[in-house]
Amino acid sequence: MTRRIFIGDIHGHYDGLMQLMEAVAPGSQDQIYCVGDLIDRGPQSRQVIDYVRQNNYQCVMGNHEQLLLEAFPNGEAHMPAFQGWLYSGGQSTLSSYTSVDDLFDHLHWIKDLPFYLDLGDIWLVHAGLNPQHTIAEQTSHEYCWIRDSFHSHTKPYFPDKLIITGHTITFTLPGIAPGEIAKGPSWLDIDTGAYHPKSGWLTALDADNAMVYQFNVFHKMLRIRSMAEAEAPVEQHKIKQRSLVS
Residue 243: what pLDDT? Predict the structure, then answer.
């Protein structure tokens, strides 16, 4: 049967992604989706984008893709935004390019990324939604940056859809250990912190078979678990409100 595979924030870890995809072994009918933040912090952002493009995998806009676009708004560097992007992990991305033309080719591709994908029973977005707003009222900033007001909301946003997100490393949420998938009311967070030294886990979720594939980029270790083994409920009452851009 066709599988829908959702990949958490990769952050330039191409070698880890290759190990993960070897385990997933997608067939020609499988559908691969990326939750954004393909780039920054890890060493091989260019290679990650090349791989995702060449395989026609679908991807939503992450906040790090937004930061890159803001750094080059009109084909030239906007220095305040450029410095902010470098500070946020962009230096490693810049170092992965040997050609300015390749960078700007990727920028054109990134500009066309959607902020969300509605797959019927699954709604894919990088960061989440403002639970107080309708879809029409949401902004790109909320789709790419929101954290606590989404994670602390105790009612499902959609009555009939599972929201899959990345953006917030799961172990930063109360009740979640490094490498675990965070579960809230009709949402899952699959950013298990591939770049973070406390975790290192890159996650792929087979939503149709409730299976989780994970590769640790630091310890070079692969594990495959059921969703029941991999997920943990967020202790929502312990979430403290942080700023939207934390």
Answer: 43
Phi-psi region of 210 (alpha: psi -120 to 50; beta: other; left: phi over 0): left
Q: For residue range 73-84, what is the model confidence (pLDDT) as tens digits?
A: 988 899 999 999
- Its pTM stands at 0.95
Q: pLDDT-based confidence at 8, cuts 50/70/90?
A: very high
CB-CB neighbours of 123 under 10 Å:
21
CA distance 222 to 43: 20
Burial state string for 27-44 with b = 16 or more CB within 10 A and e = fewer than 16: eeeeebbbbbbbbbbbbb
Amino acid at site 243: S
Residue with tokens 């953006």: 167
Which amino acid, one-letter code, is at 241?
Q
Q: Which of 163, 153, 62 is nearest to 120 (CA)?
A: 163
The pair of structure tokens assigned to 21 is: 């995809």
